[in-house]
Amino acid sequence: MDLQRLVVDESVSTLFPPGVLLDELNDTPIETTVFDESVDRLSPDQGVVTFDYHEAFLDSGWVHCVLAGVDQFPFERFQDESTPLTNSTGIHGDAIGETVAGYVLAFARRLHQHIGNQQRRDWSQPDWDEAWTVDGETACVVGLGSLGRGIVDRLTGLGLDVVGVRRTPTPEPGVEEVYTPDDLLEAVSEARFVVLAVPLTDRTRGMVDGETFAAMDDDAYVINVGRGGVVDQAALVTALEDDLIAGAALDVFETEPLPDASPLWGMDDVIVSPHCGAFTRDYCNHVAALVDENVSRIRDGDDLVNRVV
């Protein structure tokens, strides 16, 4: 590929201003501009950095997604057009790990309740047996990739015992036992926190369903920082309403933004955040480093980092 130009789609503004990324790519040895679909026409000598998918991107020579999850991109179309697709996996572990640690501590120390009470000027202390400390509790981390690694490091640092789930049961530092998805029910059965950090694929879609919630203890919390489609959301609502589980912290949903009519908004012991668990002021720097690396690799004829298709 003879890469001559790199365009940044305005959709990256969900995470950071396009101009900030252009500044970070200032030393890239090719022209870099913001993509204007109404004016620009893409060609095989151009690369695209984007948050969203647009049909026009298939005419380019390479597409880089600023997200780790690329389930919104039609892989078969990219294969048919021989357009390489790369993603930003590997840069979110620290931010997601800290987000999960925040959810865990909020539930244990009842911080989410205090925030709600503050809005109502309600001076209500928790019951004597309502708050607890997380040292010695068990967390099951479903997905032990780069996101899972960041989560494991934070939770073990807080004193939790961690078990994990991934396709191959190879040992993982800090994880006491690794299960396969076939043993998911056993893996979650004794966990106070079940943390979902898997991408959305045909295998993971709906993997956490009513049977999974029934296998959990009634004092367990579900934390989803992967993709909304990994969870059967209707089954989750039912599990919360029927007190099969204690609560949930959700950063991702089947439909985003979460519809106003969703019962999740008003539920006790449910934390809703707007798909921002990976947000950090350094996000742009991390993406720029990946893009820079792949620009160099393309010009040198080397394999791309984080190639998905």
TrEMBL record:
Span of domain D-isomer specific 2-hydroxyacid dehydrogenase NAD-binding: 102-277
One Gene Ontology molecular-function label: oxidoreductase activity
Pfam family, one: 2-Hacid_dh_C
The keyword Chaperone appears for this protein: no
Residue intervals passing through the bilayer: none
Keyword annotations from UniProtKB, A to Z: NAD, Oxidoreductase
Enzyme nomenclature, EC number: 1.1.1.-
InterPro entries per the UniProt record, alphabetical: D-isomer_DH_NAD-bd (IPR006140), Dhydh_Halo (IPR054891), NAD(P)-bd_dom_sf (IPR036291)
Gene3D superfamilies per the UniProt record, alphabetical: NAD(P)-binding Rossmann-like Domain
PANTHER family, alphabetized: 2-HACID_DH_C DOMAIN-CONTAINING PROTEIN, D-ISOMER SPECIFIC 2-HYDROXYACID DEHYDROGENASE NAD-BINDING DOMAIN-CONTAINING PROTEIN
NCBIfam families for the chain: Dhydh_Halo
Name the UniProt record assigns to this protein: D-2-hydroxyacid dehydrogenase
Origin species: Halohasta litorea
